[in-house]
Amino acid sequence: MAGVAALMVDITARKTVGFSILGIIDLTQLAQMTCVFLVLPFAFLRESHVAVDFITERLPARVRAGIECVSAVLAVALLAAILWYSWEQALIQIGQGDRSVTLGIPMLWYWAPLLAGTALSIAASVVVFLKALLALR
Fold first, then answer.
1. Tens of pLDDT along 95-111?
2. 9: closest CA among 35, 30, 34, 27?
3. CB neighbourhood size of 63 (10 A)
């Protein structure tokens, strides 16, 4: 809430008096990275991603569970690839000492929520897979 308020003040001040809050872009980008990637595991556990319910809800329970198993395995594979390539890129940027443009925030602070959220999303997808696997029995 504070981030949105600060951004609103920044936009209003820029448009009216030509004043901008120093570093607001760096801070809002960091807050956005943190919020998005740390909520992903929760979304996986709650199975709240976009789904085509009007098709799958008509299927038998075992077929739905099978589809959920396959979907979870695909999610783990995709998330593992994202984690691997993100880790490599993070190491490059951290090794080069990259920092945010205005405030000089080390890129580690931007990569940490992405890497943690992706790793936790893999764990959440495994839980979803196991739950669907149990439903197949």
1. 999 999 889 999 999 99
2. 27
3. 12
